[in-house]
Amino acid sequence: MNAAYILMSLMxxxxxxxxxxxxxxxxxxxxxGVRIPPDRIDEPIIQHVYRDYYTGLIVILLLVEAAxxxxxxxxxxxxxxxxGGIFVTLLLIYLDFYSARRxxxxxxxxxxxxxxxxxxxxxxxxxxxxxxxxxLLWFIPAFIILIAMIIVAIVRYPVLPQQLPTHxxxxxQPNRWTDKLVALWTLPLPAIFTTALLFGLARYIPQxxxxxDPANPEADVAYQHELRHRTSQILxxxxxxxxxxxxVISMITFGILPTSNVNAVVPxxxxxxxxxxxxxxxxxxxxxxxxxxxxxxxxxxxxFVAQDDDRYWIAGMFYxxxxxxxxxxxxxxxxxxxxxxxxxxxxxxxxSVVAIILVSIGMRAxxx
Length: 368
Description:
60% of the residues lie in helices and 9% in strands. The protein is mainly α. The protein has 2 domains: 1-117, no CATH class; 127-306, no CATH class. The strands form 5 sheets. A two-stranded parallel ribbon has the order 1-6. Helix 5 (140-156) runs antiparallel to helix 7 (188-204). The longest helix is centred in the middle third of the chain and has 37 residues, at 217-253. One of its GO terms (biological process) is response to toxic substance.
């Protein structure tokens, strides 16, 4: 079977499985990113939307698999099959999600679900006073691998040919090269950026603003404290595995691992990537269990509900509130935190990320 099709199929399947599993990370009062009162979580329309969303994911997978087979067999192109397949899969998944979100938002508006309810905003500031920072020692393996990557590039640079292979065909043979001076700093750059980002998140997350569910504040504070602690622990492990994968790629590019046998290295990279995916899945599973346990810690308070703040969330994913001084906000969808695009520093962060991506694309244009 065509290798490009197999790779595309696996990646598309992982995206669809994640999109399916993603719904388990949604708080019951935030289905598809729409804030609803606790007494509305069992509305029939919500159950119908979930059913249609899952059906849509199955249809998406079948369509992408069929299209991927056509392009992989007709053109035998790994970039078209993988990059195109991933892009189309992500686009279709988002459209499926957006349709579900819009239906719930319309039902909420037409049914006037927040009529007569007392909306409040509650936050816990104790985490700011005593943030539970993880030890810097957790990031030492990631830093060691990053330093090793830089040393490999510097030591190997004088003996390398002017052009280095940076892209390989399905047969494992190089089919694209780049100048070694460009490769010297562009290969370690993603590792430097990723390590710095994950390190900063691990240090900042414990003291980020903790918005609390007013219907069950005690349980929610305990849940979020444990969530932040676990997230701060998994980030250095994630940084270590990503840097390890990039180190192997650098060793291939800089000639320590023979390019003639690159196909033998691909399974190793796939196993490492699989370990990262399994680690993330375990983390998410434990987080879901923790969230479910939260519901039984205390009796919910039905006198108050969280503020209907959908107007600050663009498409249910991107937070924009110039009146909110917080930089990092807990995600409306899934687990983790996102940037407040209404904060000036949030704009600086996004612009910096976009600049790095554009520079990386520009450097790829130099590949010969």
